[in-house]
Amino acid sequence: MEDAKNFEIIIVGGSYAGLSAALALGRSLRKVLIIDNGEPCNSQTPYSHNFLTQDGKPPAEISKVARLQVEAYPSIHFHQDLAVRGKKMAAGFVIETQSGNVFSTEKLIFATGLKDHSSGIPGFSECWGISVLHCPYCHGYEVRRQKTAIIANADIAYHYAMLISHWTDDLVLCTNGPGLLNSEQKQKIEHHGINIVEKKIVMLEHEKGQVSQISFADQSSVAIDAIYSSPGFEQHCQIPAQLGCDINEEGLISVDNFQKTSVEGIYACGDNSNLRSVSLAVSSGSVAGMVCNKDMIAAKF
Fold this sequence. Notes:
The protein contains 8 helices and 17 strands. The chain is α/β, with parallel strands linked by helices.
């Protein structure tokens, strides 16, 4: 593979979405290169849920099986590296990696995921994906009816309070400082028995990522079993934006129903352009792979 620098499709990102796109393309007899640095954003998450046939399995186990299945197709090639630059050429694109390798391709599929921001609260990063969660559909059943906190403010705090109240009625909302809820939101939250704490958080006490309490600046604390929070994110890979792909107001790569970006010949799938879910990443990757192949056939028919 090292001598073959030209490919029909390069997939940047080799986790669930990228492997799913590769599976569709391998079965379509396409010469594909997957560039991946082996650092998925959910590496700290112990179990994946809400994915039919894979519910409750460790993410790494799902990826391992997926890769073995994709490797069965001889036209699929892997290169462990970090893609750092992209360039539009007359006949397609060029991707350069951190190690200095340069690969050319007709089409690009970005399955590069998102990079989560740190909240700045000590203990938060260590608990992220373990007991500090972002999605009740992925993890809510496992912490149902437990003592649960929400760390959020303003509209996202109201959204979480409404949503998480379905999984537990032992719920507290921590705004980590003065609350920014409007009067109607605050009244509705309190009406449902959800206490609002507007104190500054100084630490999440935990044991190997399992949170036990939230400590506040006034030296008070609240015992807790699980936390929901959405600390914000950015695109893990900046190449799509560098190549001119539109980024929407939520910070996601803009795609249509066929995973096409605003740039001809570039597709995006997985967390970088969709709701965050392993099952949705697999689905969008399959769509990207099939549509990319169909577009290539149509162009030459």
